[in-house]
Predict the structure of Methionine import ATP-binding protein MetN.
Amino acid sequence: MIELVNVTKTYENVTAVDNVNLTIPKGEIFGIIGYSGAGKSTLLRCINLLEKPTEGQVLINHTDLTALSKLEVRKERLKIGMIFQHFHLISSAKVYDNIAFSMLAAGKTKDEIKERVPELLEMVGLSDRADHFPAQLSGGQKQRVGIARALANDPTVLLCDEATSALDPNTTASILKLLKEINERLGITIVLITHEMEVVQQICHRVAVMEDGKVIEVNEAYELFADP
Ligand code: ADP
Ligand code: ADP
């Protein structure tokens, strides 16, 4: 479960996130939509403390991340996977190593890695690509690697930062299908931000609408898209 309590993030004279309160139960696919500059990305990055809130608390499974030391935050962050619009893969490393590196960083052994990486690749449908470099993959395949890497350390939460915005509609649909399968099979809570209504419409259970740093509405996805 994710709880944001009075979360505010200010930069110099910009209030990027303005007193946001949200509770996202375990297993939910929660969408955050809004125009560019609304504060979506900053809010998402507050959930794993890539941005430290100026005020307020962030609780993941009842642990208040804002009360922890930097070292402890780094440990907690391993339980929170993240995927990005532009994938953020290491271009000089093979698919296998892109995933292995994040497991090494979490202190996993070579044996654990050897067993886990093929499982992850199978889950995302890339069993035959372990030895490819990112440049040899399509955008959709790169995002599948991003998803495998994000799941490598068995997170309870997956954060998706405009994860399909760089992909064409068919590829977007297949990535969303994969995220839905992961949510259903593993019970992972997914929080995604997007400026594309179709994305939330396709997979989100509930949706928050952001404007000027504030959450102005939270609703069931079907309510949000119902005809008035
Ligand atoms: P693009 O660059 O793709 O045009 P926009 O920021 O214009 O992105 O938003 C895309 C769509 O998302 C809009 O057509 C609108 O339907 C929806 N949207 C974005 N922000 C909001 C909001 N704050 N409230 C409701 N719908 C929104
Ligand atoms: P969104 O993801 O909805 O496009 P952002 O969270 O990226 O919105 O940005 C929200 C506001 O915060 C914007 O006005 C943006 O310019 C500002 N902002 C974001 N990151 C920084 C930063 N590192 N320094 C200063 N201002 C920032």
In short: The pocket of adenosine-5'-diphosphate (ligand 1) is lined by residues 33-36, 195, 197, 209, 211 (CB under 6 Å). The mean pLDDT is 96. The two ends are 32 Å apart (CA to CA). The first strand starts at residue 2 and ends at 11.
